[in-house]
Amino acid sequence: MRSPKQLTGVIFLTPDQFWQEFLATKGLDPATKYFESTYFGIDKKMANDLLALVLSGQKRATASSLLAYECENSPLPQVGDYSIITDFDDTPHCVIQTTAVTILPFNKMTYNICKREGEDDTLESWQTSHRHCFTIEGKELGYEFTEDMSVVFEDFKVVYTKTII
């Protein structure tokens, strides 16, 4: 386990330490595992802006490329999974729990679905921003964005937050 980061006397917990505090606070089995520790987005500004939306309650879902899971040989999220959400610098801020997972083609996404991400005012703006993110991610992972590629849409609820600083 990594040691806590420290800055001007303020201690920052690692994701694993944050997870253990969550388990203890909620009275859950200390052997319980989390699905992932991650941030949303593709760069620092986006990651920190999306974290703020999660913490405010506006962002209640996220969309990922099914191809990214396949390229990274990663399991898909399942209902009931817990994940730690961090800022871009890997400082944990909350734990979310997956409440639904839907897989559908990018071009079949509706505004009624994507508005739960809390990021966009229209389907068109959601498509533009996600087309951009999936294209960048695809170049990094070795897949090509297409309008009919499958999107993993994960609904979640925040089950734990802690003020860190």
Largest sheet: 5 strands, mixed
Total number of beta strands:
7
Q: Which strand order do you get reading across the main beta sheet?
A: 3-5-6-7-4
Number of helices: 5
Mean pLDDT: 92
Strand content: 25-35%
Instruction: Give the SSE order as H and E letters.
Output: EEHEHEHEEHHE
The helix content is 25-40%
Low-confidence stretches: 1-9
Q: How far is it from the N-terminal to the C-terminal residue, by CA?
A: 21 Å
Shape field:
globular
User: Which structural class is indicated by helix and strand composition?
Assistant: alpha+beta
Computed Rg: 16 Å
Describe the structure.
The protein has 165 residues and is α+β, with helices and mostly antiparallel strands. Helix content is 33%, strand content 27%. The chain contains five helices and seven strands. It has helices at 15-26, 44-56, 66-71, 111-114, 123-141, and strands at 5-7, 10-12, 36-38, 61-65, 82-86, 92-105, 150-161. It has a five-stranded mixed β-sheet with strand order 3-5-6-7-4. A two-stranded antiparallel sheet has the order 1-2. Strand 1 (5-7) and strand 2 (10-12) form a beta hairpin. The chain is globular, with a radius of gyration of 16 Å. Mean pLDDT is 92; it is low at 1-9.
